[in-house]
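Reopening: structure tokens for the benzoic acid complex, inputs below.
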Amino acid sequence: MPSQTAPRPASAAESTPIGYFTAANSADVVIARMEGCPNDRLKTIVSALVRHLHAAIKEVELTTEEWAAAIDFLTRTGQICSDWRQEFILLSDVLGASMLVDAINHDKGGGTTESTVLGPFHVENAPRRALGDSICLDGIGEPVLVRGRVTDEAGRPIPHALLDVWQANGDGFYDVQQQGLQPEMNLRGLFEADDEGRFWFRSIVPQYYAIPHDGPVGQLLIALGRHPYRPAHIHFIVAADGYEPVTTHIFMPGDPYLESDAVFGVKESLIATLRDLDEPAPAGAGEAPKRVVEWDFRLMRRRATPAEPLS
Ligand code: BEZ
Ligand code: FE
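Re-run output (same inputs, fresh job):
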């Protein structure tokens, strides 16, 4: 029984305006079938997808077995997804799609801090911590002081900017990957910069780590002769009223994977310096850091949009 909302079947003439489906005209025939789509943007996106997909299939002369293997791969990619595992985002990451979307949407220029991939391990509602606190709750790893300022494009401080910070532990795992092993909210924190836009907190020197590679995406990487490693980094989302927030990382210098990040997230402007701390560390609990990472974030003023005028 046709559903009540299904579009009325087109006449033969309407449904085959450019002839029956052949290998030669395949994309055109599929795209023509979307002529009545009321959503222009959807039509544009799906048409481009069909055009490029058909061109790729023709270019490689995909076999039936290869097509079945691709369907099986996508099926397994979906099946391994759960509340805490998003294999499709991982797939997008290792194919460079996530960073391409980021590049197209966050090309701010003007010397402001560049963005990079969010990754799957950000959690909402990280605990608020006081400036100087440590985000390392298990005391494992080499202590480091992280400090800097949040400023506008002209270098003027942005008071009370918020910094959402997270990183992997010394073994290369995020707390959410090792529930029950790591303390909850280990190596996460939300900091508010002071009146002069300054922030400082304690952490551990991050290490390079492997992205989850025990699933279909990991199998794909191995089949492609690729490694699953990301260079050592600390994640940040930095936000302030009236400014565009930035989702980014700071990378550790000298990491062996800086030039071959499995998810293509490295930008030269995001490689920090790590040096010995030559003055006493600011007060704080735990072992005093002997090393420091200094990093300033520059945010761009938010642009008004017609739909959302700024006050
Ligand atoms: C991360 O840096 O946390 C990450 C990013 C992309 C894929 C996997 C992990
Ligand atoms: Fe990460």
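The chain has a mean pLDDT of 92. The helical segments are 12-15, 26-32, 40-60, 64-79, 87-94, 97-105, 216-223. Marking as resolved unless the reporter disagrees.
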